[in-house]
Amino acid sequence: MSNIEQTLSIIKPDAVERxxxxxxxxxxxxxxFKIIKEKKIQMAKSDAEQFYKVxxxxxxxxxxxxxxxxxxxxxxxxxxxxSVLGNREFMxxxxxxxxxxxxxRKKYGISIDKNSVHGSDSIENAKIEIDFFFKD
Length: 136
Ligand code: CMP
Description:
By secondary structure, the protein is of the alpha+beta class. Helix content is 41%, strand content 21%.
């Protein structure tokens, strides 16, 4: 049985602003992820609020939504065997200072807020997040 999965990745404003989007896409491809769809957009704050609704009770929610909508992002559907977990491992810890060698956040993350990439945390959320950006 195949366990090819799709997951949703976002290259966040701090990385796009530093023109790192192509570099990060290359990192994904070199790691064996296929980029099935991608789009560069700037989100409205209300869209960011919807996207991060699971965090709405957290103290950082408002700043998080302001930040995600502060500049262009690149949203991508990534495909690979076990891509949800694989992407989370490849991104590294949420806080770049805790991220392991070879991870995207170790290489490019600036802070826990400006941590360069987002990735779905479960297969179920990957479906929801892919639909959020790519449902026709
Ligand atoms: P992300 O994987 O996109 O999911 C939610 C984001 O909230 C997370 O990355 C961080 O950038 C941001 N964030 C800010 N503060 C915190 C915190 N204390 N704990 C977890 N995430 C945080």
